Amino acid sequence: MFKKILIANRGEIAVRVIKTCRRMGIATVQVFSDADAGSLAVEMADEAVHIGPAPAAQSYLLADRIVEAVRATGAEAVHPGYGFLSENAAFARRLRDEGIAFIGPNPEAIDAMGDKISSKKLAAAAGVSTVPGHMDLIETPDEAVRIANQIGYPIMIKASAGGGGKGIRVAHSDADMAEGFAAVKAEALNAFGDDRVFLEKFIVDPRHIEIQVLGDKHGNVVHLFERECSIQRRNQKVVEEAPSPLLDAATRMAMGAQAVALARAVNYDSAGTVEFVAGQDKSFYFLEMNTRLQVEHPVTELITGVDLVEQMIRSAWGEKLAFEQQDLAINGWAIESRIYAEDPYRGFLPSIGRLIRYEQPEEGDQDGYVVRNDSGVREGDEISMFYDPMIAKLCAWAPTRDAAIDGMGRALEDTHIRGLGHNIPFLAAVMDQKRFRSGKLSTRYIQDEFPDGFHGLAPDRRRTDVMIAAAVAMNEILSEQAGDPSDRVDWVVLIDGQAHGVALGYDEDEALTLDLVDEGRELRLSDIDWRPGLAQFRAVLDDVAFTAEVARAPDGFTVRSGPARARVRVLSPRIADLYARLPEKQAADTSRLITSPMPGLVVSIAVAVGQQVRAGETVAIIEAMKMQNILKAERDGTVKAVSAKAGDPVAADDVLVEFG
Ligand code: ADP
Ligand code: ADP
Ligand code: MG
Fold first, then answer.
1. What pLDDT, on a 0 to 100 scale, did the predictor assign at position 588?
2. Ordered structural domains, the chain, with CATH
3. Mutate to test the pocket of ligand 1, among 113, 290, 626 (most ligand atoms within 8 A of CB)
4. CA torsion sign, 163 to 167 to 169 to 173?
């Protein structure tokens, strides 16, 4: 077996690969850029080699630097992770020429699957069902429109070299097609240096289902069943699971057989993924093959017990697969949530910064579920603008899908992040939704369920109970600590202005009892784990454990329970009565101000003082995480002041333009 492996990647996937290497007794070399000098992966690896400045084009994407690092450390093999050089056939070929093992498929297989046009042709030849469309190159918008009319709208316009959800557009009409074709061509040239574009039928309301395959260098190929990745935002996966709630055994076997046939057709000899779109009627069509370890591979590992990184290493070394198809079976259900540094309340804008607090859920066997948390960062680390803004991949496994969803809900509650925006409340909302639980998924799910963006969910009954109980208990603890234990029994809890009368007591086991007097129900709160200063309130409410995120606020607290957050006030009935008579304070009118939604650089300011601006007109452009964000006027008005100019760095909430 290899004695030393170099990891040509960073972040969570580097940490993931190091863990398996350690278990196998293989030494590791971690390459790093300036931005990653103090990273967890660098700390965990046996050796580390600096390869350049932060931008990937000057470090992680430089094959020369990687090869130099291999030479300098005597590593025998390179694991490329995902992204970066992982699907670069020239890199794999170069390593082979230099006598270094590439822990991935052979370069010919990468080439064959490297672009969507040739891989689709190959798939069709191998008997794999493909999306109907036009597989030859299209040069002009006119030609695109003519072919589109033969296929019939809606149509997906795709860059052959596309990846990561980029270079994809849907056209519903000739006008869409003419415009979209030119746009995708330009985007593809810019992002991938390859402007080949093709057309295929757009499958309406589809699901994304993919098959994990695994091959060796002796002609053996198996599949490890499917993952469903239909919860996507802008064609990028957010929540994944295995198995898929759509498939029956027969469809699963048919998809698996096609994926294996395709892998065999290209002599596939490592871990890879064959992606399909599936109709709600279980029809399925090949999309593309990813010739690398997939981001969401942990859910497959959780239901099969196979370590895919270990299998990649063994196959790169030349070992035969130690199992056959019939040895593999699905055990239970696994879900993955991608935790991103993005602000769900602000249209999911990137929200980079330092992890001031980062509490991760306990991994391993919990009460009724298993937690796995793949993360590449620690408390105090920075999520920088240079790379993917993923903080962690949180997985929950359980014997059934329902229990896995419950487990994920708990694991999300047990993840606590401060210092930057994160999508945990959004992920919690998905876990809470009846539609998600019913398994009626589609790639339109997020659009359908959150048509106006995400604004949190209103607390349901259980979360309302959690808020009441946590706030009353914290209030008791605080007054006790202040040496002023109130013996008041009657309280009114205001949740976002809504009053709930509570009569407080203790039962024989010293648990807090809360009689909801208006509803005639009693809550029982025990095992309270909180003291002043803690941001997480843990306890057991009516025999079910929960964690809420809490902060003190005037007359009470702010409490977030999963996707719901609210101002919670704990008042005596007399004060509550006064509150009820007070007019609600009007929120400040912020529509006069255009503020930067995130830290970034001002690209341009499109208006000047005195200028008349109509609602919807572009006011400023901010660049962050290599993305340009266009800020538009929310209403008509005259520009009163401009407080930034092109090139200025700005912080979140900095005012850029003020209207009169
Ligand atoms: P997965 O199905 O594993 O989530 P993605 O397509 O989302 O795969 O890509 C995984 C990673 O690889 C992401 O970080 C993505 O940005 C990157 N990636 C994928 N394809 C490309 C490409 N052609 N060019 C640049 N980055 C890519
Ligand atoms: P990428 O290389 O960016 O991952 P894919 O070809 O895998 O590109 O497509 C990304 C996503 O776009 C899929 O997961 C699916 O949601 C959607 N998609 C792709 N092709 C189609 C299609 N023909 N019809 C409907 N949706 C599609
Ligand atoms: Mg894809």
1. 58
2. 4-103 (3.40.50.20), 132-201 (3.30.1490.20), 207-449 (3.30.470.20), 461-580 (3.30.700.30), 593-659 (2.40.50.100)
3. 290
4. negative
